[in-house]
Amino acid sequence: MGCCNRRCGLIAGAVFGAVVAILGGVLIPLGNSVIGGTVEKEAVIEPGTTAYDNWVSTGAKVYREFWFFDVKNPLEVLQYGATPVVVEKGPYTYRTRYLPKHNVTFNDNHTASFLLPLGAIFEPTMSVGPEEDKVVSLNLAVAGAYSLVPKVFHGALEKLIKSSNSSLFQHRTVKELLWGYTDPLLKGYLGLFAPYNGTYDGYYTVYNGKDDISKVGIIDRWRGERNLRFWDDKYCDMINGTDASSFPPFLKKENPIYFFSSDICRSVSAGFDASLDLKGIEVYRYTLQPNTLASPTVNPNNQCFCKDLKTTKNCTMAGVLDISSCQDGKPIYISLPHFLHGSPYLREAVLGLSPSEEHHNTFLDVEPTTGFTLRFAKRIQLNMMYGPSKVITVLNKVKDYTIFPVIWLNETASLDDETAEMFKRELISRIQMLEIIQQSLLGVGVAIFVLCLISYCVVRRRDNQSKLV
């Protein structure tokens, strides 16, 4: 009778262990479903959700750090045709994106529309000097006029340059170069980012994810259009992805992410680079791929971005994008800082550049479950072009067309400690607790089942041996 009780107890224990293990196994898809449902609910862009609070007003402080390329040998360039030598000067830091979205409107087709206000506040404690610091920089007016005025009118341009006492390079303050000054050549207000304060980016219309969470944050329209009108090509004019502040949840490492940037007038993609720990939160780091600004000979998809055969050496030059078509005709060329991933020719034409993946590439650190971008660094360089001219005196000694670096910027933000703790408390800790319960039930159940099964076999063997004796 005792043997029977022992066997029955062990069988019951094994059954109990199996039930506990099965319960742990069942909780895995059930728990994933609960997590998925919670994330989907909180990722929708509508009042009352976590996504909405972060979407309307950027929680993290966003900064723009500017580095200027200070020309060290302007006279040698003008008088002898020497190769320009530049030294990086910066950062001069401004706080940006501190204003909430304006005119937020929710539409019937599960989209939300808004304007993104632009503003910049100087941060002296994060800068190498005051805004009144002077820089020897390329003359924006002269370089711009050279690009825009046909050669047949170079004689008239030469007279204007001389009468205004302008040259190929100029001494300007940081504040003037960034936000504007009255230019003697053009008789108007000129600056790399003028006008900026009090202006807007957009109108944007994005999907709110209410009917389909896989579309949340994806741009439906920009300035009322579903496609751009800058490149005269269906592919290059596509608006893909989000604005990079967030992405649809449940990211997978093997899939690239897509985002549109009005600063560079095009959509780009970024690929998974590494899993990192950010204040105790796992994030996926995505980086721009080296072929993003590759020449069409390497990346045929970039053929429609090549507009000027002359300055791009018949579209064989890599690393530069002519965005004049979306800058009201301003001859601006975009690249990564220090011509990272650009053709060697670019760094040979201007000395003093030293590209670095660590310091000059763009990256996004995205929490994969929610799709929220928790840290980023968007790095862009602004360049202008000038070339030889037999008529314009300040360009007499120039030997070839030069894409000249004027400034590069790093727009950056990172999750603060308070938000990180809230994020871990509200989401990460719950997910981890559920996983611990799942694994514990599964582990304990399997252990009980195996232990009871082994014990049952041992007891039965002993009982059979005792019967034989």
Description:
It is a single chain. The protein has 469 residues and is α+β, with helices and mostly antiparallel strands. It has two domains: 11-59 and 432-469; 61-98 and 120-197 and 227-415, no CATH class. It has nine helices and 19 strands. The protein has helices spanning 2-43, 50-56, 74-80, 140-148, 154-163, 174-179, 344-349, 357-360, 417-468; strands at 62-71, 86-96, 102-106, 111-117, 120-122, 134-138, 169-173, 181-183, 188-190, 200-207, 219-222, 257-261, 266-278, 281-288, 320-322, 333-335, 363-366, 373-386, 402-414. Strands 1, 2, 5, 12, 13, 14, 15, 16, 17, 18 and 19 form an eleven-stranded antiparallel β-sheet that branches. It has a four-stranded antiparallel β-sheet with strand order 3-4-10-11, with no helix packed on it. A two-stranded antiparallel ribbon has the order 6-7. β3 (102-106) and β4 (111-117) form a beta hairpin. α1 (2-43) runs antiparallel to α9 (417-468). The longest helix has 52 residues, at 417-468. It starts with a helix and ends with a helix. 34% of the residues are buried. Residues 13-28 have low confidence and may be disordered.
How many domains make up the 3D coordinates?
A: 2
**Beta-strand content:** 25-35%
Structural class: alpha+beta
Number of helices: 9
Stretches with pLDDT under 50, minimum 5 residues: 13-28
Distance between the termini: 18 Å
Order of helices and strands: HHEHEEEEEHHEHEEEEEEEEEHHEEEH
Biggest sheet architecture: 11 strands, antiparallel
* Helical content class: 25-40%
Shape: elongated
Task: Let me know the average pLDDT.
Answer: 86
Number of strand segments: 19
Radius of gyration equals 31 Å
